[in-house]
Specification:
Translation Initiation Factor IF3, SH3 type barrels, 18 strands, 8-stranded antiparallel β-sheet, 6-stranded antiparallel β-sheet, 4 helices, single chain, about 300 residues, flat
Length: about 300
């Protein structure tokens, strides 16, 4: 009898041990949680298998907010990606030379930047930084919050002679723009269809410009009330949302929606080497709420 009890307890102990060993780990992503068996946590990726499977998968480490292991231990991942909403957030753009660090992100297109010193006495480091700033500015105007630099070329100052002219320092960068979040286009389309908006600000950036240009375009009527216009059309094409606003004169009829948050709408258009952002305010914005409050008091 004692031997039977001992065997039973031993079997239960083995069962509990095996259960503890096979309890899945959890990867907490931005919009979902995966139950997996983590095999390796590397510098830029996490390798894992699904329970009762042997195929090994990998995921960009920076797409995981935290790991809860089967043992109960938690590991918080320090994510370098920040929310970027236009040129004012240019310094928040994540820049890398490592393709693994943008694996799984949404590619928004190619980037190119060139900066040249004004004279042969220009500081090479300053010119390099200006070229990088131009690339980050273009990325924000595309709706990106991460940049992968694929190639960088620099030259120093060259003091010429009677035959060969002098050349100032120059840096040329090639890269790709990425976004960490997938926009909810259907939700945006439903909210913006026929919406009243106020054209607030215009941003433009030519690849040959020294820096982006920002222009305040807000107009008022005779009663000092912001002029309201309307979105007349909206459509989704190639997983992008486009709208038409006749009051905004552009080279293209339809403008792409790259951001819509807290009542601020950002549209994007391109013409040859120039990229444009149009900033508009809807009734949900703090700006329009303050206007309504002032009108209510009057």
């Amino acid at each position: 009898m004692k031997n039977s009890i001992l065997i039973l307890l031993l079997a239960l102990g083995i069962s509990v041990t095996l259960s503890a060993q096979t309890k899945p780990d959890k990867l907490f992503l931005q919009n979902e949680t995966k139950e997996v068996m983590v095999k390796e946590v590397g510098l830029s990726e996490i390798k894992y298998t699904f329970p009762k499977e042997e195929t090994i998968y990998s995921i960009n480490k920076y797409l995981v907010q935290k790991i809860v292991f089967g043992s109960g231990r938690e590991e918080i991942i320090e994510i370098p990606f920040k929310d970027v909403n236009g040129l004012t957030d240019m310094d928040k753009v994540f820049v890398t030379y490592n393709p693994d660090e943008v694996k799984g992100l949404i590619n928004l297109g190619e980037l190119y930047s060139k900066a040249t010193g004004v004279t042969v006495f220009s500081n090479m480091s300053t010119v390099k930084n200006r070229s990088l700033d131009k690339m980050k500015a273009e990325a924000t105007m595309l709706g990106a919050n991460a940049v992968l630099i694929s190639d960088a070329r620099s030259r120093g100052n060259y003091y010429g002679n009677e035959i060969i002219p002098s050349q100032s320092t120059q840096t040329v960068l090639f890269g790709q723009a990425y976004s960490t979040s997938k926009n909810n286009l259907d939700k945006w389309k439903a909210a913006l269809e026929g919406a009243d908006v106020v054209f607030y600000q215009s941003h433009s950036f030519n690849k040959n410009d020294f820096s982006p240009k920002i222009e305040m375009v807000l107009q008022y009527d005779e009663n000092r009330i912001p002029v309201i216009t309307q979105i007349t059309e909206s459509n989704i094409s190639d997983e992008r949302l486009f709208v038409k606003i006749p009051a905004i004169r552009t080279k293209t009829e339809n403008l792409e929606v790259i951001s819509y948050e807290n009542g601020t709408l950002t549209l994007m258009g391109k013409n040859k080497n120039t990229i444009y952002n149009y900033i508009l305010k809807t009734k949900e914005s703090d700006f329009m709420k303050s206007v309504q409050t002032i009108l209510g008091k009057n």
